Amino acid sequence: MSRTAQQDKGQQGEDAALAHLLRQGLALVERNFRCQGGELDLIMRDGACLVFVEVRRRQSRGFGGAAASITPAKQRRLVHAAETYLLRYPRVPPCRFDVIAIDAGRIEWLRDVQFS
């Protein structure tokens, strides 16, 4: 199945986010975890903490930028996917949500984002 240009750009954004987080000392656990009703771009480990990372990429900061594009519906899907992923653990480890926002090529790492 061929990929669209948009999918290629999304993949490039995820590659850049992963490289950035690896340079910061996080370790990759899983990439593109999908379940019915949600997807997690990156699952990383930061010490004992499991980190669910949403990667958003925008060409400019117009309309609020990349981070602002995470709608309440998207937040619900992220939480659902994380809850599904955590079912594999007998005891839930410490965990958090992070966002990598890429605006016009500039990476911003938002740690421990609280979704409403």
Automatic annotation (TrEMBL):
It comes from Pseudoduganella armeniaca. It holds the Pfam family UPF0102. Coiled coil: none annotated. InterPro entries: Restrct_endonuc-II-like (IPR011335), tRNA_endonuc-like_dom_sf (IPR011856), UPF0102_YraN-like (IPR003509). CDD domains: PoNe_Nuclease. Belongs to the UPF0102 family. This is UPF0102 protein C9I28_01285. Transmembrane segments: none annotated. The lineage of its organism: Bacteria, Pseudomonadati, Pseudomonadota, Betaproteobacteria, Burkholderiales. One of its GO terms (molecular function) is nucleic acid binding.
